[in-house]
């Protein structure tokens, strides 16, 4: 097996110069073609989906390479300018030392990505998401050299800092990943990043010039009309108990969810009197989000409710997939709340914006492995006019303005106090939650495509 793998690798390396020459000869239409690479799940990479959509709207044809584990947004699937090419994801080997398992996976990804890129239509630019950048940065740079494509790296974070959460900052893997990112990151033609703090760090420590392109919400993130809220709640109620009405209305023409009711004759939808508040948090269930903070805050909230506090019951919806979901699901199952219900669904791409636009409060527990990136989930919440409580870290102030568009907390105790304050006398239209929502409605909500046209498009034309 090892011999056949080495033979295959040798054949690929021998064919590369021939393929490179052939691709240069075919470069007639390359100026209007861009390859977008995500060495991860396309459906869980919204920023790269938005890049692809913006490129298509500017007249480029786009080939989007990535894993297809979840459904991307419909707008991307329906675009006749965007072609999605599936990458094969090699699952971790079950045998051998961890170093060997990781090495085989990296080599497989490198050869597979290299082969896919070389057989893709010639492109003027290769857009690459980092992280994960190992081995993608080196492969994309190599293809760019062979085929005349310019490499654009979009720095969402540092891959080595994410690895450091698992292995520790001084682990040989982590130090190697840091050296690799610094070396190959300097070889790109254009660098984008998500915060000014990251731009300064790249310049100071890695000598990489980058341009800050803040995440902005896509146009489909907005407040959800009440009728659509009811449809969503009824749909989710078919599979998730917290959305199901707890008692019958006694009126056969009334259709109820936990939060809303609809008169089936007139079609009129209203909020239920005494409804619970809907709290939403979205996550990748990774080490940089500590959900024990939320659970501890909710325990304090439960005690306040039991002792006669004028507080509503809560339905907490935590969306997403990731390695720590099972761990936190076990912790949640061990809690015995009377006034708080949990739901941890994986939502369809079209339902997630509707949920954010229907919620009363968003909670973000993202702390950033590097301290230099911002949680896109909060951007989407703001686009949906959803107030947010977010755990504090180094550059969060670039997004969340304390007491303007939400609240910043340091620990579970402070979050519990904020929940008590925000939900006091819920759903009072004069309360603080309503004031935050009003501020978000009145603030200039620059959408992704507008921001992209102002920043990235001119850079491509000048590169």
Could you explain how this protein is built, in words?
- This protein has two domains: 33-40 and 55-67 and 79-88 and 110-214 and 446-463, Rossmann fold (3-Layer(aba) Sandwich); 226-442, Rossmann fold, CATH 3.40.50.2000.
- The strands form three sheets. It has a seven-stranded parallel beta sheet with strand order 3-2-1-4-5-6-7, with helices on both faces. It has a six-stranded parallel beta sheet with strand order 13-12-11-14-15-16, sandwiched between helices.
- It is an alpha/beta fold.
- The protein has helices at 2-25, 46-57, 74-78, 98-118, 136-147, 159-167, 172-185, 196-206, 226-237, 292-306, 325-333, 351-356, 376-383, 412-423, 432-442, 448-462; strands at 33-41, 61-67, 82-86, 125-130, 150-155, 190-193, 211-212, 254-256, 260-263, 269-271, 277-282, 314-319, 340-343, 361-364, 388-391, 406-409.
- The two termini are 44 Å apart.
- Strand 9 (260-263) and strand 10 (269-271) form a beta hairpin.
- Helix 2 (46-57) packs across helix 16 and helix 6 runs antiparallel to helix 7.
